[in-house]
Amino acid sequence: MKLNDSIQAVVNWNSPSIQGDETLQAAVRKMAENNVSGLIVYQEGNVLGVITDWDIMHSLDSGNDPTDTKVAKFMTSCEVMLDKEIKSPCVQLDTSIKIKDALRVMAMENVHHLMVTGPNNETGLISSLDLLKGACC
Q1: pLDDT 10s digits, 96-130
Q2: CA angle at residue 65 from 63 to 68, to 5 degrees?
Q3: Beta carbons within 8 Å of 124's beta carbon, 6+ residues apart
Q4: Where residue 70 sits, what CATH number does that domain have?
Q5: Range of the domain at 13
Q6: Which residues pair with 6 in a beta bridge?
């Protein structure tokens, strides 16, 4: 793969997820079990946002107890983008975006994870490492 290739091949369509009312401790466990640094957050079958290792570190630095702090408190909220309309501040892409453009979005937005909406409105997650592997390896 190269920088001008689509992100389609590097998106994790089976991204681990967590419910918004679960604890940060549960999120850390799920990230560790799946060797990932971000989870898609759902509630009642709807996408709420993304929680990353950085969000959890920020929570801990602020003095929150991970055993009773809920994921929804520190996640980045978003709604799924449909028909090219952005509905919230969550950075999100569709599969037609090139790897180099996704890396540029991450750099501009200062994020390391992006949600990706597929052609059938499925939701996946992509990390900066996923993109770098696609571009270089």
Answers
A1: 899 999 999 888 888 889 888 887 878 899 999 99
A2: 145
A3: 11, 12, 13, 14, 15, 115, 116, 118
A4: 3.10.580.10
A5: 7-136
A6: 98
